[in-house]
Write a structure and sequence with these properties.
single chain; about 70 residues; mainly alpha; 3 helices; about 50% helix; rod-shaped
Length: about 70
């Protein structure tokens, strides 16, 4: 089995490819998104919050430690 990327220059070829796929001679697979596209989708799905500073993180750690909450 061999995987190829094909650029279609003539719209009539799409019908030919569909026929080959119907005859089970080839499989047409969806193009996988690039890492940049996947990262952008992930980034877009995250809430829009102001930047967190290192001090904010240290303060949160201090609060958790002082509360004595066990993370088991």
């Amino acid at each position: 089995m061999e995987t190829l990327t094909i650029e279609i220059k003539n719209p009539k070829v799409r019908e030919l490819i569909a026929n080959l796929a119907d005859m089970d001679l080839i499989a047409v697979l969806p193009q996988q998104p690039t890492w940049a596209e996947r990262w952008q989708a992930l980034s877009d799905s995250l809430p829009d919050v102001p930047q967190i500073t290192e001090q904010d993180i240290l303060d949160e750690i201090k609060e958790v430690r002082q509360s004595g909450v066990s993370r088991q």
